[in-house]
Amino acid sequence: MIRVVIADDEPLIRAGIRMILTSAPDIEVVAEAGNGREAVDLARAHTPDVMLLDIQMPVMDGLAALSELGRAAPEVRALILTTFGEKENVLRALGSGGAGFLLKDSAPGELIGAVRAAAAGDAYLSPGATRHVVDQLASGQGAARGEEARRRVAELSERERGVLALLGEGLSNADAGRRLHMSEATVKTYVSRILAKLGCENRVQAALLARDAGL
């Protein structure tokens, strides 16, 4: 079972998410938090596989909770819940080690798929917002960031760059394996090696680096 904690300050939102997730046979909601401090405490107490973390919460907001989670429960994969109006916060969250982001108005199947992807160690970038966020990055970072990204990527082998490019497209290990005619286990090995070489904490950071490098 994939064990999940839901962190959102709106009870109706939490109830809706719980209803969707518990309809999946492989997902269990083990706790709910109404603010960021509760989310961190529950992560320590329950060690869930995935946490759905709203950005706008009282006491401690989602971004602060994400940073705290990195120290208190680094094994927990945090999916950020967001809206289009929070683009800058999303970029900060991804840069702080979030496992991906999901729009609050996403379809139920997308929510379940995102939780499964995060639990499997894959990044999840909501199709409804990925391009918008990447465009924001591309328009605001300038040449210096792209040059630095290309310098770091140049240290990878040709095959590693190929895998990284597919991470930039948001592909899972299984989908990347099919594209490259490799087993999923082999792709996973490549991904681990790529993250280590690039100094990235997770697949999301690697995906953004791939975009910066123009892959």
Task: Walk me through this protein's architecture.
The modification 4-aspartylphosphate is found at residue 54. This is Response regulator transcription factor. Residues 149-214 form the HTH luxR-type domain. Keywords: DNA-binding, Phosphoprotein, Transcription, Transcription regulation. Residues 3-119 form the Response regulatory domain. This protein has helices at 11-22, 36-46, 62-72, 87-95, 108-119, 130-153, 158-168, 173-180, 184-198, 203-212; strands at 2-7, 27-33, 50-54, 77-82, 100-103, 124-125. With 215 residues, the chain is α/β, with parallel strands linked by helices. Strands 2-1-3-4-5-6 form a 6-stranded parallel sheet, sandwiched between helices. Strand 5 (100-103), helix 5 and strand 6 (124-125) form a beta-alpha-beta unit. It is globular and about 50 Å long.
Structural descriptors:
single chain; 215 residues; alpha/beta; 6-stranded parallel beta sheet; 14% strand
Please give the structural blueprint:
Elements: E1 2-7, H1 11-22, E2 27-33, H2 36-46, E3 50-54, H3 62-72, E4 77-82, H4 87-95, E5 100-103, H5 108-119, E6 124-125, H6 130-153, H7 158-168, H8 173-180, H9 184-198, H10 203-212
Helix pairs in contact: 2-3, 6-10, 7-9, 7-10, 8-9
